[in-house]
Amino acid sequence: MSEDVLLQEARRWVRDARRIAVLTGAGMSAESGVPTFRDAQTGLWAKFDPQQLATEDAFRANPKMVWDWYAFRRDMIAKVEPNNGHRALAAFAQRHPHRMTLITQNVDGLHQRAGSDGVLALHGNISEDKWLDVPKGCCNTETAMPGSPPRCERCGNMLRPAVVWFGEALPMQALIAAETAAQECDLMLVVGTSGVVYPAAGLARTAAGRVVIINPEPTELDDAADAVLRGKAAQLLPLLLED
Ligand code: BV8
Asked: What does the pLDDT read at residue 2?
């Protein structure tokens, strides 16, 4: 089936779907200029494996290095804008209230900046911090000693990015809501994810409805798809979601 026929078929599925679940990954933000998670290691970070850095062990072993890696990523994300793919998803949800549930693995906040509400951010948000150890009465982010990372001036507790590291549990409420959306959907769009990271990727395998993948490259989830649209999110989503 030609790409265009496939797109028309997928557009019909969107029109007919009462409940649409959308699962996005790093490729969603690629056209905003945010390198994907696996391509992100550029420059001085090229020699590091993100899966090794995005862990509590790495942070405890070398807090400054891991903090600096997040500072580097935060700076990069602060300079970019949502793209037409983010905007197409936000606009569709505004035109069709209560039909779309947006689930993201991304921590860059670009869906929220594009105007999407109620985003299920399974892996947290890179622009927020939280205490590494359970905060005590003395741990006050307002008076934390500046540094890489900032620390509680009284007990030395460190601040860390409020993201979900490998080996950490996902936020339970968001995960349950995402699993429910997958199990109740008539259609799931899986956009810009390699499908490697669980339990997020598993949502595409529990979708009750048809699964449409949008990705320029093959993914670990292609076998679970009813249709694969080989293309870029910022180009295909506006075409797929226009009324
Ligand atoms: C957990 C935040 C348990 C940090 C991230 C089975 C079940 C459960 C767990 C596991 C399991 N098997 C293994 C595990 C452990 C692990 C895991 O999945 N490991 C993998 C590597 C095998 N999972 C975990 O550790 C999770 N926690 O299970 O805890 C538990 C339970 C109870 C109590 C305690 C513990 C936590 C996982 C979350 C990790 N944190 N991010 C940070 O960002 O620093 S994940 C991180 O990697 C990103 O957030 C993102 O989610 C992920 C990368 O995946 P993608 O988004 O897919 O990005 P990627 O670069 O891989 O691919 C980009 C894609 O875009 C490509 O396909 C490309 O072709 C495409 N693309 C490029 N350009 C475009 C495009 N697509 C469209 N348009 C374009 N223009």
From this structure: 80
Q: Which domains does the chain carry?
A: 1-34+82-123+170-243 (3.40.50.1220), 35-79+126-163 (3.30.1600.10)
- Told to judge if 123 belongs to the known catalytic residues of this protein, a careful annotator would answer yes
Structure tokens at 3: 């790409």
Residue nearest to atom 9 of ligand 1 (CA): 198
Spatial contact of 175 and 122, defined as CB atoms under 8 Å apart: yes
Weakly modelled stretches of the chain, pLDDT under 50: none
Protein residues whose CB sits closer than 6 Å to any atom of ligand 1: 25-27, 30-31, 36-38, 51, 54, 105, 107, 123, 163-169, 192-194, 196-200, 214-217, 219, 232-233
Q: Which pLDDT value is given to residue 47?
A: 73
pLDDT computed for residue 105 by the predictor: 97
